[in-house]
Each structure stands twice: as C-alpha cells, then as structure tokens.
Design a protein that fits this description.
By secondary structure, the chain is of the alpha/beta class. It has two domains: about 5-45 and about 150-220 and about 330-395, FAD/NAD(P)-binding domain; about 90-140 and about 220-330, D-Amino Acid Oxidase, Chain A, domain 2, CATH 3.30.9.10. Helices cover about 30% and strands about 25% of the residues. It is built from eleven helices and 20 strands. The protein has helices at about 15-25, 60-75, 95-110, 120-125, 150-160, 205-215, 245-250, 260-265, 295-310, 355-370, 390-395, and strands spanning about 5, 5-10, 30-35, 50, 90-95, 115-120, 135-140, 145, 165-170, 175-180, 185-190, 195, 200, 220-230, 240-245, 270-275, 280-285, 320-330, 335-340, 345-350. It has an eight-stranded mixed beta sheet with strand order 6-7-5-15-16-17-14-18, with helices on both faces. Strands 9-3-2-13-20-19 form a six-stranded mixed beta sheet. It is globular. The protein binds flavin-adenine dinucleotide.
C-alpha cells in the first residue's frame, strides 16, 4: 500500500496537473500519478497557442475566454511569466470561396464577443510583409495568445507540491477497482496501490484505455501531430499565422480543398507561431496512426515545403528539432469533463484534441469545483455520459 488520498489524478500532462493544482488549492489531498516522466505526453510535444479564431461560437469558445483570464491570474499566482504572450493571429485566405466562408464565420465570432476582423490584402501585408503572393486577405484577432506549456506544467507542479500535492512519475496505472469501503484502489506497474474516494482520469489520448481499467467507457482516438522548431530568428512579421484551408473545410460541408494526396493523408495544415525563445514552431500534421508518436521524414518534409511556399524567407532558416505528440480526439470534437453515471467518484477530464493548452486552466478549475460539490449547468454537454448509447453498442 503506497498511500491514501482524497483524490487520485491519473496522468501528469497539462490537464492532469491543472486538475491536481486546483483540487489542492481547494484543500484536497491529491496524488498525480504519471506513467512516464515530466511532459511525456502531448503537452510536451505541441504548439503553445491559446487560440480563439479556430473555435466556433459555443462552449469551446466560451471556455477559452475564461481560460485566458485564468492564465492571466496564474502568471501572478505561480510567480512566473509562463511564456504568456499576446502576438495576435492571422488566418490566411487564398481565394474568394474561402473568403466568403471566413466572412460569415468572423461575423458569428464577433457576435459572440471575439475581437476579430477581416483584413484586405494591403492591411494583411502591413502586418505580414513576408507572405507569398497567393493570399488575397486574412483575418486578424489581437486576442490569440500563447503560453509555454513546459513552464505552465513545471509551475503547476511546483506550486502544487508546495501546497501538498504529490506528483508520482514512472508509475503506469495498471488496475482500478473498488474496495469494501467504496474507495478506489489504483495499482501501478510497481505493484504499489493508492486509494481514494475520487479518481480523475486525465490521461489524454490514453483515456479510453485507463477508463476501461475501471469498467468505464471513454471514446478517444489519438491524432498524431508533427511540428518542427527553427533556430532563433528575428521576428517574421507581427503575428502568428494559420491557413484557412482546413478550417473552412470543417466549417462548410462539401467544401473541396485543393490538396495533394500526401497532404490529405498527413492532414497537413499550416500553423506558424513565435516562441518566447525567439524560434518558431511550425506545423503541423493531423494523422490517424494509432499510438505511434514518432516523427517521419514524410511529415517533416511536407511541413517544410508548405512553410516555404507560404513564407518564402523561411528557406534561409534552419530547423533544429522535430517533435510529435498525440492529440486526444473525441467523436464530437468536445472534451470530456465530468463524473461517470453509476460510478460515484470516477471522473474523466480528457479529449481536448488541439485545444488542451488553451483550455487547461479552466478544465482544472471546473473539475475541482465539480469534485468539491459545485455543479456548472453548462457542463452537461461535456459529460462522459453523452456517449452512454455508444458504450452499450460496444459492450
Ligand atoms: C502538434 C500539436 C500541436 C498542438 N498545438 C496546440 C496549441 O497550439 N494549443 C493548444 O491548446 N493545444 C495544442 N495541442 C493539443 C495539446 O497538446 C493537447 O490537447 C494537450 O496537451 C492534452 O493534454 P493532456 O494532459 O490531456 O494529455 P497528455 O499531455 O498527453 O498527458 C496525458 C498523460 O497521461 C499519461 N498516461 C497515459 N496512460 C497512463 C497510465 N496508464 N497511467 C498513468 N499515466 C498515464 C501519459 O504518459 C501522459 O503524460 C497540440 C497538440 C499537438 C500534438
């Protein structure tokens, strides 16, 4: 027996650490149990954006606003800049069809309170003079921000530990069962057992496997994303960049994107963000390749070719690293946050796909509130129980 706690959080990525931190702040005795080392999951192999422009009006956009405010307060609370920056972002538009879809989308986002607008070509080039000729317009939002995930996790873990949170690495959870007192017994690969009345499954892309250990159902698919990191370079224009192509294809059914077979297979989309260390993160792919999180020559080559075709000056910039992580994807594109029906004390907080950095603080805070007895009526649509029918079909 290795210890008993009020709450055991399984998974030490940005979501697990945020849940652990906010639970600890509310006075709970918490252990965060992580299979690997620090930042071993997607949170250690991703971009750093707190991105608004990619989100449809609805719960994800609403929670992103709240998460941004929490990030601002965490900067003071955790005594660190957290790499928090606010360069704003532009979504690049290359033809009239894309422009029409983006104009409609921007109007919806504006009515939801997002500070975003369409820039004509001249205004776009004023902010980003290094773009290739093929873009006719862009969007611009000054709200798109960023935070350095390693710093956020390091500080959540450090401050949490000061308040009494335990973070236990190299301990893959291999079993979850109930004991005679109604507590969960969580066992790890080292044959150690931890007990608590509440368990939070925050294992990202692995959340389906960990839920199954407890007899719960969580539909989760890994989506591999590869990115490259450049050497330090002077700023390339004023803002971070994305292309509209994939966003538009998601917004408008039947929209045909002019991509090669390779680009489609890799799920290639352009993301270009400046880091605190003056390098650029350039991505990315979105691949269904199971739990394989290796980088590939095909992926790296495609990212480089795409980047140079969009921002030609990048041909003179060296890239120094490539990384890949597994985004945790749910069937409806929304995270899973809540207690499982019929399993008192068993919660899941996972499935943030490409938004886990943006939504980490608000996820941790809402989860802690829920465990401590405050229910937020909006969270029904994120409940794990929305997939109950699928669970019956699977079993
Ligand atoms: C290329 C790429 C770019 C991205 N860019 C952005 C971005 O700009 N903005 C943004 O908001 N999001 C972005 N994301 C998404 C973001 O990285 C994820 O949504 C987020 O990291 C998920 O965090 P997590 O804690 O749920 O998962 P993870 O960080 O994967 O953590 C889950 C942890 O659970 C552990 N685990 C698994 N099984 C067990 C077990 N049995 N026992 C114990 N521990 C276990 C794993 O080791 C892992 O450390 C990007 C992702 C990728 C791949």
């Amino acid at each position: 027996m290795a210890g008993s706690y009020d709450v055991i959080v399984i998974g030490g990525g940005i979501i697990g650490l945020s849940c652990g931190y906010y639970l600890t702040k509310q006075g709970k005795r918490v252990a965060v149990i992580e299979a690997g080392g620090f930042a071993d999951g997607a949170s250690g192999a991703c971009d750093d954006m707190i991105l608004f422009q990619s989100k449809k009006p609805g719960i994800n956009l609403e929670l992103a606003f709240e998460s941004l405010e929490l990030y601002k307060s965490l900067v003071g609370e955790l005594d660190d800049s957290l790499g928090f920056a606010n360069y704003g972002g532009m979504v690049l538009i290359q033809n009239q069809q894309e422009l029409e879809v983006m104009e409609e989308f921007v109007t919806q986002q504006q009515s939801y309170g997002l500070d975003v607008k369409i820039l004509d070509r001249k205004e776009m080039l004023r902010k980003q003079p290094f773009l290739s000729d093929r873009f006719i317009a862009s969007t611009y939002s000054p709200m798109d921000s960023q935070a350095y995930p390693f710093a956020v996790m390091h500080k959540l873990s450090g401050k949490g530990r000061k308040l009494g949170m335990q973070v236990i690495h190299k301990s893959p959870v291999t079993g979850i069962e109930k004991d005679g007192n109604g507590d969960y017994r969580v066992s790890t690969g080292q044959n150690l057992t931890y007990t608590a009345p509440v368990v939070v499954n925050a294992t990202g892309a692995w959340a389906g496997k960990v839920a199954a250990l407890a007899g719960a159902y969580v539909p989760m698919e890994p989506r591999r994303g590869q990115i490259i990191i450049t050497e330090k370079v002077p700023a390339v224009g004023e803002t971070n960049l994305w292309t509209a192509k994939y966003l538009v294809s998601k917004l408008k059914s039947g929209f045909e994107i002019d991509s090669t077979e390779e680009e489609k297979r890799l799920g290639l989309g352009f993301a270009f963000t400046r880091t605190e260390g003056d390098s650029y993160l350039i991505g990315s792919t979105r691949e269904s390749v199971g739990y394989d999180k290796r980088t590939t020559m095909e992926g790296i080559r495609a990212i480089i070719n795409q980047a140079v075709s969009i921002v030609p000056v990048l041909k003179d910039v060296n890239f120094i690293r490539a990384i890949a992580g597994l985004r945790p994807a749910t069937p409806d594109g929304k995270m899973i946050l809540g207690e499982h029906a019929g399993m008192k004390g068993f919660y899941t907080a996972a499935g943030h796909e490409g938004d886990g950095i943006s939504l980490a603080p608000i996820t941790g805070k809402l989860l802690a509130d829920m465990v401590c007895g405050t229910t937020d009526a909006r969270l029904g649509e994120l409940s794990p129980n929305r997939f109950a029918k699928d669970a019956k079909e699977v079993s």
